[in-house]
Amino acid sequence: MAALAACEGPAAETPDPVDPPVITEDGLALPETPYNYAAIDLPAHFQGQLAADQDNTPAGNPITDDGATLGRVLFYDVALSKNGTIACASCHQQESAFSDTARRSLGFEGGETGRNSMTVADARYYRNGRFFWDERAATLEDQVLRPIQDPVEMGLTLDELVANVSAQSYYPKLFEKAFGDPAITADRISRALAQFVRSIVSYRSRFDEGIEAAGGDINAPFPGFTAEENAGKGLFLGPAGGCAVCHLDDGPPHPPPRRNNAFFYIAVPTNNGLDATTDVDDNGLGEITGNPADMGRFKSPSLRNVALTGPYMHDGRFETLEEVVEHYDSGVQPHPNLDPRLRVPGTPEPRKLNLSPEQKASLVAFLKTLTDEKLLVDPMYADPFVKEP
């Protein structure tokens, strides 16, 4: 389903910091001892060489507890926008799995963004290491600064960004803890934000509990699933639905493919037949590369927490998971760049799944097991600014 987005078991709670949060005179609630961002206790299916291959963390910017703490404050700080009204978290809300429920988010002056805001959870495991729907950002460090500079979204130049951050009394100490001295630069802002975003990993869903209970065998019935959810899992993994061919692959096609059982990403941008032609307002990657073969191709977010990240697709055209399933069942359009996995083999025609209503419902039921309820309320990812009553 091409665009729906290390070691205790997944049910383990994120450990509390040694000290409870202390509210500073600047209105920040941060623990004296930071949360453990650098070494989250991930389950077995998030480990090993395959997981390491998908991790886009650069050697020059590893996640540190103090760096991610600084990034968390920056992520929630409206001082990163022109008029002090918008933060990164305005369009990437924790309760929505770090996505936005609006079809298009609103910028600092109320203008609409050009595309739907995809979740930033699990960005660390996007193997291709490029970001935005059209993959115009070469790294996450590049990506986190672009909305800040966008004239609709947050509206600052990098010089203005540094000045705004420098004007806040709480930042020198945070920068010193993260980087060894209090100097505030755009590069350090970028690195801290990227550390925090990479630390946001979803690994405590019912799916994760199920695969652990099944001893890592994704094909076995999960004991905690209903019959409908296990049926939906079978459809997702098997040829009748065919979803796993795209969403659990490990990279560009190669023989034999290795199944990635954790991340639910499509490894490269793809065309999933939303439109039949290139005569549309948004051609995604093709508008960046100019390559006709890239027209209509878009990055896909992870399916983790997909029940919470609608509306769906780059333009938010589908409101519900049921609509998305209908698209893949019978609505795929014959775009010239349609992914071959969505074609009738040996023809240019889109395939049809011809699922029954019961099968469609079971597929949606399975997708809902990917919701990580703990992520939505985990204090280490929450707004650190204390709101006045």
TrEMBL record:
Biased composition range(s): Low complexity: 1-12
Free-text description of this protein's post-translational modifications in UniProt: Binds 2 heme groups per subunit.
Keyword terms: Heme, Iron, Metal-binding, Oxidoreductase, Periplasm, Peroxidase, Signal
Compartments, as annotated in UniProt: Periplasm
Keyword Signal: yes
Entry GO CC: periplasmic space
UniProt-annotated binding residues for heme c 1: 88, 91-92
Positions with a binding annotation for heme c 2: 243, 246-247
Primary localization: periplasm
Keyword Signal among record annotations: yes
Protein name per its UniProtKB record: Cytochrome-c peroxidase
Taxonomic lineage of the native organism: Bacteria, Pseudomonadati, Myxococcota, Polyangia, Polyangiales
